[in-house]
Specification:
- The protein is α/β, with parallel strands linked by helices.
- The chain is built from 26 helices and 38 strands.
- The strands form eight sheets. Strands 26, 28, 29, 31, 32, 33, 34, 35, 36, 37 and 38 form an eleven-stranded mixed beta sheet that branches. A seven-stranded mixed beta sheet has the order 2-8-7-6-5-3-4, sandwiched between helices.
- Helix 4 packs parallel to helix 5, helix 9 packs parallel to helix 11 and helix 12 runs parallel beside helix 13.
- About 1% of the residues have low confidence.
Length: 854
Amino acid sequence: MSHGGNINQLRKLVNKETRLIDFSASINPLGAPSWLRAEIARSISDTSHYPDIDSTDLVAAAAQAFAVKPEQITPANGSSELIFSIPQVMKFSRALIVEPSYIDYRTACNRQGLDIVSHNLLPDTDFTLDLTLLQPYLSEPSLVFLAHPNNPTGRMLPVKETLKLIAAHPECCFIIDEAYLSFVSDSTNSSFINYTAELDNLIVLRSLTKFYAIAGLRLGLGFAGKKLTAILRNSLTPWSVNTLSQKVGARVLLDTEYAQRSLAYTLSCKDELLRQLQQITELKVFPSAANFILCRLLNNMQTPDLCTQALKYGIALRDCSDFSGLDKSFFRVAVRTPEENDKLIETLKQLLYPTSKQTTRTPIQRSTPSLMLLGCSSNAGKSIITAGICRILLQDGIKVAPFKSQNMALNSYVTADGLEMGRAQAVQAQASRLDADVRMNPILLKPNSDTGAQVIAMGKPVGNMRVLGYMDYKTQAFAIAQQAYDSLADEYEAIILEGAGSPGEVNLKANDIVNTRMAQYAQAPALLVGDIDRGGIYASFIGTYETFEEWERELVKGFLVNKFRGDASLLAPAHAYVQDFTGREVLGVIPYIKDLDLPEEDSVSFNETFRKGSDKDADPLDIALIALPHTSNFTDFDALASEPDVQLRPVRNLGELATPDCIIIPGSKNVIGDLKFLQSSGLGSAICATAKNRITVGICGGYQILGKNVRDPYNIEGGGEVAGLELLPITTTLDREKTLTRATAQHTISGLAVTGYEIHHGETLHSTNTPLFIRSDDRGIGSGDEQVWGTYLHGVFDNDEFRRYFINSIHKSVGRDISSKLRFQYNLEPAFDRLAATIREAIDIDSLYKMMGL
């Protein structure tokens, strides 16, 4: 190939399944600015008109960016258009080209029949240019092509000496190509653009396509004095710069933040790549100021063979044997991302250090197969689908683990070793038939106010943080998450990752550690999940996808429609539209699964969880569950809500309380705040009045609320002391240390065994005559009697025998017949298998496995 970056031709040479990393074209590894897509979308309507023939806004932006006058600027369809135009209009019969150099200098001159003389730089001198050696060539008027930095050597021109040479030969015209100068540190002071106004025989070229990663748009600029600029402008065809290129160019030239970030990133990547290349003894690596590095093979292999072999590994190199002065031992590599550069180094080592074992090695693969499930919104079904896919892999004999780097939820779980993690990942672990492990959810955020949360890292609290404080902590949090993921990936054959909320929240993306950044780290292909039950799913698919940068788009392999009711064939036109717009398919339609009976992750679904199902008795018990502003661990009541003779309903205000058969106050992440809510709303007084003749129960924070008072001397929840409902003779003091433990206990009245876990800051003292309701190892973790009682034990209602005993006690208290038999067994295994079967039927699992690399 005569140029690098011929991606279409390269793809014809590799297996269509091979992911190609193009090191043959030296494009900004950061990719285009994040605003590029929005700018193009905004400008689409303008394409029905001819472009601005003078490129007015583009020229004005360039004048500002390079501190020159507008009449010194010639916009073009890439700098290549100017390279081919200059020999045509400048009326020289002779050209001097310092080589090796960009091959189209010679091509452009040949097309106009110019006599070409060349000065060849030598590899023995690291291609250093001695300007004094050019003097003999300049005795006749000539076009002189120089590159700054040179392509492919990456060497810079000495600015002062070059300016003297230009000034000394006014009969010659010097074309200095600065296509890659933006990648050079201190490029402003080393640019020749600054001297075009005073030198009438100097033309400087700038390509915008490389540094700004917009090669497909084609945009270049020529800088010269007024006379030369007029000649150049008249040489180009009208409207050579299209509308979209003008719009993008005008904006990108003034985006200094992107330019600074790109330069710093590229220089950092290049330094490390250069260091790694220099350690390969089979290579001679030449110094380079640009974003590419020229290399020479020192063994018997030739570059065409190396490039062919590297393509099998998905690595495209630039064969430099077509550059004048270079033979078949030279190749060039662009600077790309650290991960891609590492793959390049590994590939080169495999190809240049062949052994009997290495010659049969397969191309580089991702270390642990993985999949990321992203959502268009919270409650799109990511958690449940993650559990289902984990169960499918388990059924197919694959050792799989779930992972969510950061979870914001009030539903938490205590592991066997006394560490706290998200309840959803504990459920996903159960779907994988694993014990819950905090590595599956290394960062847990438990909101305790509108702007703050308790931060739990690897199962232990690290403190309460407000939003800005947590932003400062996120770098550390991401490092913790990465270590946890690596540890899991070393132990399991596949990892199913779950995102959080929506990856399209543009105000949060810069600090993302759970969605696409985590998928990028894990090298996990991603599926975007949407809830069609909410409406607007296809707009959500496209809208979310449109917020993604190019590297994020590469991660997304398709979409999943979730919770569909009806005939999926009716969705075909919408699926075709999404694929046409995004280039990604809808890979499955998962039907709405009624009464799945799996715990939900988020309190978003709190009010939707406890509905009256079709299998309920005609007149079930009415249990009021107080919906506190800071309700936590509402999954404590999933099993209770599944009983056919129970209707569990959330109560948010006094008007919704009515006259229930039983009242339950759930856990709370801010007991003091929730007690104040109960008192101010009137619910507290109503609960106390109802408790005189109705069973009233408090779980964890609800247990504390039932007591005399709650003290907060260490400012855990804002400090101070607040009176409780005084339905139990207990007092609670919030302590700095958090109790995290699994427990096996006994219900003292019935003698039934119960199991669960404790998560609380409170230390609760009982008065001497307070009966213990639940006891564990001579320690009271619950007190009260049959009428009013509370416990710290989360999951107490998951115990089938105790749950039936409790329900029967409610029946008895309101004068109903008691059913002594178990009517429902809380066992998630059938639900996991049902979920897996539904997903297996909705998605092509073989294609999913192939996507993951299984």
